[in-house]
């Protein structure tokens, strides 16, 4: 009887437990250190190509920003009713990107999903740098940059009178909290790895890592406190991430603009954020895997799981997108309905159909294993998904301003000029530059967590034997 | 009497575990299990359990941070809004509770997170706490057991270590 049960268990395991290993679990711990540290010292030539291209793009963005600053917002073709242009659409895009780090590092950490371990570090870094990039757009779109503190929950003693009931003030606070918490989470989770860097570095780098590793020696007391603190911060981050994008959605949902006044906007925004973040993770996964020679850690089974997760989130987003259309279509606001029709058939129809195609149809490529295991295809698909998600934000902001309540304000053909193109492109340069710098200075694969992963599998294998 | 330290380096958790068990059973005078530290490249709860109960108090800092954050958040916002007494509010509440909950919530999280990390740093006794003996191979793949005991007991402790094939035993300079 016992034998029969065992055989049944083995049969179930054979059928349902994936055979592919996430990583080679026979890899030596010392080898993990060696591989990751070597990657930081000697990346492929492509690293410098990407870094210099990012730097150039960022430089052009800075030039455009200076031009806009000196000549006023009109130089960026911003005027009523198109007061936000591409800046706020791109701001939402970058805020969205930041959610994937939380998903991978916090949610999957709590769920003990081991496969996240080799890839969560760069996702966390992506979160931090996306938020920093998003924060820039708040400043860029203001015009009067020196008065940015009006959007902060600022005491009234200086008679600035911020409106504490405004989602814009909530937004600034939420993003500030999220950025601070993300930096803390990223740094805190990296301390054991910084100690490894300290133990292997020389000269100035050794001092740098010595300072950052805070005297970590891997004692049992340090580990015990570290584990509890890391889990607690992860638990805080999950509702925080949801609240940040909900609040960004509230910026729109509580306004009176046609097409924005929808109850489902917050979950729709959160789903969109997770979606674009996951797509960006796939892109960066493929780039880092090649540039830093991480083939042994960022493996195909992990890419496969990330793609499946992205597909699931894409379907949630598709559903909520349809809910948004249905809410407007069956709602009681004829102008909102007109705006929806305008999106589908007006001057921005190409972008609207492209967004729906890229956001809802292209992800079906992720449903096929043969495509999921094809790296060039996945790189293209992930870039297309991100383009679709950027278009989603563009379609939320621009057509609504272009086709609002008052026909005399309609600006149906509006598209930004070179200044906005430059600043938006510059933001991608800024993000990539920071991200690449991070990858060169800090370990992008969590060495201690990969060791844990290998060790647990070793113990399980031994128990089975 | 001042205490001395010794650090033994083991190749794996099993050998370190056996050495710890023998140390625990030895009942050497001038030596307590509380003065033993394990140093390892990853956390190993089973090995830590052999050292006895070592409670973690980080959650208390989290709790304090969360309470403090909510209180500070709401108080700051409400006190700023109280300045609106100087403005005409048209019958609307001076301190509107539902919208204030958003900022209160954000500060609850922010200070909760910061206090958690600060609590952890306090538990690590930063910045002053530097364990006297360390080997860089610990961050690679070796397991260290650090013992603090009377100098007269250290040779006996080292004797226990030596029975479990340590890679290396390190002592303090001059001892």
Q: How would you sum up the major sheet of chain A?
A: none
Radius of gyration of chain A: 24 Å
The major beta sheet of chain B can be summarized as:
4 strands, antiparallel
Tally the beta strands of chain A: 0
Report what the structure shows:
The complex is a heterodimer of chains A (465) and B (175). In chain A, helix 9 (220-253) packs across helix 10. Chain A has 17 helices and no strands. Chain A has 465 residues and is mostly helical. The mean pLDDT of chain A is 89. The two termini of chain A are 21 Å apart. Chain A has helices at residues 2-16, 29-41, 45-71, 85-97, 99-110, 120-140, 167-200, 203-212, 220-253, 265-291, 300-329, 334-345, 349-361, 369-372, 375-402, 418-441, 447-464. Chain A has one domain. Chain B is α+β, with helices and mostly antiparallel strands and 175 residues long. Chain B folds into two domains: 4-55 and 131-171, Alpha-Beta Plaits; 58-123, no CATH class. Chain B contains five helices and four strands, in the order E-H-E-H-H-H-E-H-E. Chain B has helices spanning 13-26, 45-49, 58-82, 97-123, 154-162, and strands at 4-10, 36-39, 143-149, 168-171. In chain B, strands 2-3-1-4 form a four-stranded antiparallel β-sheet. In chain B, helix 3 (58-82) runs antiparallel to helix 4 (97-123). The model of chain B has no long low-confidence stretch (mean pLDDT 87). At the A-B interface, helix 2, helix 7, helix 9 and helix 17 of A face strand 2, helix 3 and helix 4 of B.
């Amino acid at each position: 009887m016992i034998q029969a049960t065992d055989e049944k268990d083995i049969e179930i395991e054979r059928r349902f437990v994936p055979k592919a290993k996430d990583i080679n679990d026979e890899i030596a711990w010392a080898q993990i250190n060696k591989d990751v540290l070597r990657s930081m010292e000697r990346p492929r030539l492509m690293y410098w190509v990407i870094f210099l291209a990012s730097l150039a793009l960022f430089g052009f963005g800075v030039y455009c920003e200076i031009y806009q600053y000196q000549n006023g917002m009109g130089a960026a073709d911003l005027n009523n009713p198109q007061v936000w242009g591409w800046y706020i659409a791109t701001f939402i895009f970058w805020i969205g990107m930041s959610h994937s780090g939380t998903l991978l590092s916090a949610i999957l950490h709590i769920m003990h999903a081991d496969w996240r371990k080799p890839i969560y570090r760069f996702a966390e870094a992506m979160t931090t740098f996306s938020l920093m990039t998003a924060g820039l757009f708040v400043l860029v779109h203001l015009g009067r940059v020196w008065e940015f503190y009006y959007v902060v929950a600022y005491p009234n003693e200086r008679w600035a009178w911020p409106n504490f009931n405004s989602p814009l003030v909530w937004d600034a606070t939420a993003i500030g909290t999220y950025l601070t918490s993300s930096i803390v989470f990223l740094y805190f989770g990296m301390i054991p790895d910084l100690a490894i860097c300290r133990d292997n570095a020389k000269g100035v780098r050794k001092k740098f890592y010595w300072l950052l590793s805070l005297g970590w020696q891997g004692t049992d007391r340090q580990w015990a406190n570290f584990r509890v603190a890391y889990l607690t911060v992860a638990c805080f981050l999950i509702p925080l991430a949801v609240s940040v994008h909900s609040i960004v959605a509230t910026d729109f949902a509580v306004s009176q603009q046609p097409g924005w006044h929808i109850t489902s906007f917050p979950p729709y925004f959160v789903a969109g954020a997770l979606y674009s973040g996951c797509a960006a993770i796939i892109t960066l996964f493929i780039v880092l895997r090649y540039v830093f020679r991480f083939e042994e850690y960022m493996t195909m089974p992990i890419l496969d799981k990330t793609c499946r997760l992205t597909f699931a989130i894409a379907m949630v987003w598709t559903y909520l997108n349809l809910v948004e259309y249905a809410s407007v279509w069956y709602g009681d606001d004829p102008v909102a309905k007109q705006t929806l029709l305008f999106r589908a058939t007006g001057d921005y129809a190409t972008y609207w159909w492209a967004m729906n195609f890229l956001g809802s149809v292209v992800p079906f490529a992720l449903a096929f294993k043969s495509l999921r295991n094809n790296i060039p295809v996945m790189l293209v698909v992930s870039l297309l998904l991100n383009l679709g998600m950027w278009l989603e934000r563009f379609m939320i902001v621009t057509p609504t301003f272009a086709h609002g309540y008052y026909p005399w304000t309609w600006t149906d053909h509006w598209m930004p000029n070179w200044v906005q193109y430059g600043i938006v492109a510059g933001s991608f340069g800024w993000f990539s530059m920071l991200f690449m710098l991070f990858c060169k200075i800090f370990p992008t694969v969590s060495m201690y967590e990969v060791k844990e992963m290998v060790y647990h599998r070793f113990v399980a294998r031994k128990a089975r034997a | 009497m001042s205490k001395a330290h010794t650090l033994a380096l083991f190749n794996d958790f099993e050998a370190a575990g056996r050495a710890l068990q023998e140390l625990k059973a030895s009942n050497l005078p001038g030596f307590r299990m509380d003065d033993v530290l394990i140093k390892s490249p990853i956390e190993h709860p089973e090995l830590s359990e052999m050292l006895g109960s070592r409670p973690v108090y980080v959650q208390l800092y989290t709790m304090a941070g969360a309470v403090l954050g909510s209180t500070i958040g709401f108080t700051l916002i409400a006190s700023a809004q109280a300045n609106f007494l100087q403005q005409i509010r048209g019958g609307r509440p001076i301190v509107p509770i539902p919208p204030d909950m958003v900022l209160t919530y954000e500060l609850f999280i922010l200070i909760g997170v910061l206090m958690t990390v600060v609590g952890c740093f306090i538990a690590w006794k930063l910045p002053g706490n530097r364990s006297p003996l360390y080997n860089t191979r610990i961050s690679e793949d070796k397991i260290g057991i650090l013992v603090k005991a009377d100098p007269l007991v250290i040779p006996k402790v080292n004797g226990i270590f030596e029975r479990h094939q340590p890679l290396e035993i390190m002592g303090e300079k001059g001892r």
